[in-house]
Amino acid sequence: MMQMGDLLGPGPVLLPGDPAAEAELNDGGDPAIVAAAHPAASVAWAALAEAALADDRAVTAYAYARTGYHRGLDALRRNGWKGFGPVPFHHPPNRGFLRCVAALARAADAIGEAEEYHRCLDLLDDCDPAARGQLGLS
Q: Is the pTM of this model over 0.85?
């Protein structure tokens, strides 16, 4: 496993994920139905936000991404995250949260909310410096 950041800082948080929600999405399940059945699964909210962005529905995407972001923060805190420290992209269960942060950045940018856009980029950089590139943000 790759160690990231300050060697004296907290270790990486590796979320347990939601195998049922992930399986339903991987099997082509409707993200809205998956999110309703598994509201704590950031991965479902990320799928909803990304679809809304693809349809030029930035406000809707913002709402979905913000929901997934907050559900992800809850999961991170339950798993020992104190508001800082690595949340590596290479760990698949972390990707739902990181995708929500990226979608929130895109939606904030689309509606002209520059401060939120930059906060999201900073959070991605703090979680994993490689995440922005993996998520198509520069």
A: yes
b/e per residue 17-56 (b: at least 16 CB within 10 A): bbeebbebbeeebebeebbeebeebbbbbbbbbbbbbeee
Residue in 97, 128, 98 with CA at minimum distance from that of residue 1: 128
Question: pLDDT per residue over 81-128, tens digit each?
Answer: 999 999 999 999 999 999 999 999 999 999 999 999 999 999 999 999
Q: Which DSSP string corresponds to 62-107? A: HHHHHHHHHHHHHHHHHTT--S-S---TTSGGGHHHHHHHHHHHHH
